[in-house]
Model the fold of this input.
Amino acid sequence: MSDAGIVPSCFAYVVVVAYGLVFGSFLNVVIYRLPREMSLVRPRSHCPSCGALVRWFDNVPLISFLLLGGRCRRCRAPIPWRYPLVEAATAGLLAAGCEVVDLGIVPTPTLQLAVPWLDARGGVAVIAWGGWMLLAALA
Done:
């Protein structure tokens, strides 16, 4: 098999880490809202101190926390360290999982919402669909 179609491993890790950050951000929503019996969809993300809605550019996983200095843009209340730690840990765990299985991925034809990628050796499937990622071992 030619190596021409294999996605470079650094790109594969960037994609996996990006999905890990997004999934970690969603986990933060679940961690905060489920115990309070709040919807996971509405209301939009907001500062728990002043109630200001978090704008989309202030809601980029990990990066926004660093750029805002760990504080709300409006009231400057501190944002708990749990948020970036959960995001970074989720991204790190997914990247470590890829390292364990030595992920070399080949893109297959894609649909608009579903992007299946398979390991060139047939060992791992990474399926990204609507913002969710699944790592599955293939026999």
